[in-house]
Amino acid sequence: MTTKITDEKISRLEELFASLPGLGPRSASRIVAELLTTRRPQAQRLCRDLSETLEAVHHCPRCHALTTRPMCVVCADQTRDKTVLCIVETPADLQAIESSVAYKGGYFVLMGRVNPLQAVGPEELGVNTLLERLDKEPIEEVVIATSYTPEGETTAHLLAGVIKKHKPQLKVTRLARGLPSGVEIEYTDAATIASAVAGRR
Ligand SMILES: [Zn+2]
Fold it and tell me: How far, in Å, is the centroid of ligand 1 from the Cα of 200?
């Protein structure tokens, strides 16, 4: 018979880590054990940096990406192409497209995707801010880069409809189908993203 050794505070930490995306209970307890022993300096830095960032973080007023500055790095960059706007689901997708180096326009981060079961529609994804931007900025093309999952496809379809209705003269494209079906943009390699950006239609 095995007795499970439990320490309330340590277990709570393990549960917290295990609840994060991509981490199971096994890796969570390994991370906690390391943070509490060999990686104490990193643990202290994690506490400090996390609490400082939590205090300062907000959504960029222009693209909704997370930032600790008044405006995010991409939006503040004057050299970006202001005629193209790429719509992504998450900040991780934005990073993936940035690392492909194939795209130099602006972004809009939905921070999710349409989900009728959870009552998440275009409005919850900030579509009104998006439309305001289309009115104010010299945007000529909107590239919809939501994932090729059923929810991502639905989101793309709905957004394309709303954008076309709001501003019919805009060119609305979708990342080329080179991206594997059912796969999240953030897990796609840079070369594939680069060719998907080049082949958008
Ligand atoms: Zn921004």
Answer: 23
